[in-house]
Design goal:
With 149 residues, this protein is an alpha+beta fold. It folds into two domains: 95 residues, no CATH class; 39 residues. The chain has a two-stranded antiparallel sheet with strand order 1-2. A two-stranded antiparallel sheet has the order 3-4. Strand 3 and strand 4 form a beta hairpin. Helix 1 runs antiparallel to helix 2 and helix 4 packs antiparallel against helix 5. It starts with a helix and ends with a helix.
Length: 149
């Protein structure tokens, strides 16, 4: 809990909002498209402060799990010129998708990517269960499907 509080203090001092869950942290900043470069500078400053604090507390920022995504309408996203952030030795490219606690998000929060991923996974599970359907009752098949999801 102490670590989470410190992270929230650092992000607030940089003018950002943070959401923490277990060892996952999301940073948010809301700006107009015209202020994207200012948002970039504030975000870089905040992540550098967090990286320094983490090093002092024997923690490490996991660069492999770090994602950057702009959100807005397709018109707003088309007007953005910031496509990557350079944070210390790390260069983050902006992506068109990010995951948040297993939820697949796109820049417009349309849920289309997540729905497609759930459908793909569900069809795969149904094909796997099809091969053993004679060995199980209908109730057991439904329970196996639901538990797999």
């Amino acid at each position: 809990m102490q670590y989470t509080v410190e992270v929230l203090h650092i992000t607030a001092s940089c003018g950002l909002t943070a959401h923490c869950y277990a060892d996952d942290t999301q940073l948010y900043i809301s700006v107009l498209v015209s202020a994207a470069s200012e948002a970039e500078a504030r975000l870089v400053n905040c992540v550098e402060h967090l990286d320094l604090w983490m090093a002092q507390n024997r923690l490490k920022l996991n660069a492999d799990k770090t994602q950057l995504m702009w959100m807005g309408t397709w018109q707003q996203l088309a007007n953005l010129t910031v496509s990557q952030l350079e944070i210390s030795a790390l260069i983050l490219d902006t992506g068109d998708r990010a995951t948040d606690l297993s939820l697949l998000l796109d820049g417009q929060l349309s849920m289309a990517l997540h729905i497609a991923a759930v459908c793909r996974s569900s069809y795969y599970q149904m094909r796997q269960l099809w091969s053993i359907k004679r060995s199980l009752t209908t109730t057991a098949l439904v329970q196996a499907f639901v538990h797999a999801r």
